[in-house]
Amino acid sequence: MTQMMTPSSEAELAQIVGDAKGPLTIQGGGTRGMAVDGDVLSTAGLSGIELYEPGALTIVVKAGTPVAEVDAALAKERQRLAFEPIDHRGLLGTKGTPTMGSLVAANISGPRRIQAGAARDFALGVRFVDGQGEIIKNGGRVMKNVTGYDLVKLMSGSHGTLGVLSEVSLKVLPMPETEATLMVHGLDNDSAVQAMAAALGSPYDVTGAAHIPGGDAGVTMIRVEGFEASVAYRIEQLRTALARFGTEMSVSEDSNAAWQDVRDVTAFHGATGDVWRVSVKPSAGPDIVKSSGAEAALFDWAGGLVWLCTEPGTDLRARLGPIAGHATLVRGSGQARFHPEDAGVATLSQGLRQRFDPRGILNAGLMGS
Predict the structure, then answer these.
(1) Most exposed among 74, 135, 232, 345, judged by the fewest C-beta atoms under 10 Å?
(2) Are 87 and 54 in contact (CB under 8 A)?
(3) Which of these, 253, 201, 257, 199, lies nearest to 228 by C-alpha position?
(4) Contact 344, 327 (CB under 8 A)
């Protein structure tokens, strides 16, 4: 019978890992539904903002700190997490509370990634406990303060397989004065990807490019942010630049809710079927949708991220065949969640796991280990 352990200090966390006799399921806020075999080790008890310096655009938080708590603190200073992290609860039908450590551990990011970058690009420092119960610190509170191995980047996206995060330091950014979104209506998938590529290739600093298919009811969204006069100018320039697609356009000056729907893949909430997240070069996105036989699709990152809803049990990887990208099962069962690594990457990954978790107890099997 498994047990739930919720340490309230980093030292207690280290002792639990060091004394563990079997595998551990590392859990942040419990919103991802990615449990593996083993006793549950939750970081929810490691919560709180330890340092926030608005002038330096840095924040240091314990790993179990709720994202909502950090968002609220940043909003008071007109600042934000620039990487726009997805909230998985609606998509996965889970409860729980998204936590800051989970954002870094899973390298979570949303629509703004095409302009600002991912979570790992804003991670300045980490503290974590490795698979032997040792406490390790790497990085600092300023971007240049990284010495030796860049464990900050290594831990970002490791999904708790190399260590259990206890603290993260992040760079934050100011909120823009305003935002607006150019809505291009009725484009097919191929034309939408071409339009988004044209927008990203322009000098108008696009911070979001997404496409929601739907024939005449489909919409392609191009977002810009900044000072009001600059936003108005860039929107008009983009309207002119995309006029060659010969379709109806409109402008939304309050599109935050629409982008939250894109971020959280709201269109798939409550839908039956498996949900896949496919990362490919944007130009390949339309062909991926055609080959997948998916019942529904959504394009983000100008087509570089394709969300697909397929019939339950669909082996999407077999259906797509070899692709220059990754297909990750986000919701469904009976298949490996993560795209299989090629031989070279698998060898490197195994070497890293052997170095940081030689007993193989941290989220064992989650990423193919």
Answers:
(1) 345
(2) no
(3) 253
(4) no
Residue 127: beta bridge partners? Answer: 137, 167
> Which is it for the CA torsion 274, 81, 112, 138, positive or negative?
negative
Task: For residue 164, report the phi and psi dihedrals to the nearest 5 degrees.
Answer: -105, 115
d(Cα 275, Cα 139) in Å, to the nearest integer? 35
* pTM of the complete model: 0.92
Per-residue pLDDT of the chain (369 residues; tens, 9 = 90+): 678 899 999 999 999 999 999 999 999 888 877 667 888 999 999 999 999 999 999 999 999 999 999 999 999 999 999 999 999 999 998 888 999 999 999 999 999 999 999 999 999 999 999 999 999 998 655 444 444 568 899 999 999 999 999 999 999 999 999 999 999 999 999 999 999 999 999 999 999 999 999 988 899 999 999 999 999 999 999 999 999 998 899 999 989 999 999 999 999 998 899 999 999 999 999 999 999 999 899 999 999 999 999 999 999 999 999 888 999 999 988 787 888 888 888 888 888 889 999 999 999 888 764
Alpha-carbon gap, residue 88 to 304, rounded angstroms: 19
233 Rama class: left (phi>0) / alpha (psi -120 to 50) / beta: alpha
Beta bridge partners of 24: 39, 362
Whole-angstrom distance, CA of residue 64 vs CA of residue 43: 5
**The tokens of 350 are what?**
């195994």
Domains and CATH numbers, the chain: 4-174 (3.30.465.10), 178-263 (3.30.70.2190), 266-331 (3.30.70)
Residue 321: phi, psi to the nearest 5?
A: 75, -170
Spatial strand order of the sheet with 164-171 comes to 49-53, 58-62, 164-171, 123-129, 135-139
The dihedral built from the CA positions of residue 249, 250, 252 and 256, taken in this order, carries a sign that is: negative
- C-alpha 24/C-alpha 16 separation (Å) is 10
